[in-house]
Amino acid sequence: MKHLTLKALFISAVAAFSMNAQAEDVYGQCIADAENVIATAKKEGGPAARAIEQKTTVDQCMAELAKIEAKYGDKTVALNPSYVMTPEDRAKWAKLFDAVDAKKFKGVRYSMASYYR
């Protein structure tokens, strides 16, 4: 019985770690895609940036944004979610929001990179 409990604990810990690693992986890929788009726009211009292949879709990144906002539940009703977030979550949320803009080929960073290259 003791071994079964330890095995169950170990398996649940591994599953929780892998789910957390996968969530961080999507977040990291969204950020990496945006940085790649911006770097390409700086180097080669907007048309070249639009032609590169991205690892994640905008919908996947928006789902990550929704996960961050979901932590705060009803506190965000009729408010900007950043008002009730912790500083760490607010920084992740803002960075991901900027990444979504860059993946859509919009936003300040992308526009500055493609226009002033």
TrEMBL record:
Residues 1-23 form the signal peptide. Keywords: Signal. The keyword Signal applies. It comes from the Bacteria. This is Uncharacterized protein. The lineage of its organism: Bacteria, Pseudomonadati, Pseudomonadota, Gammaproteobacteria, Thiotrichales.
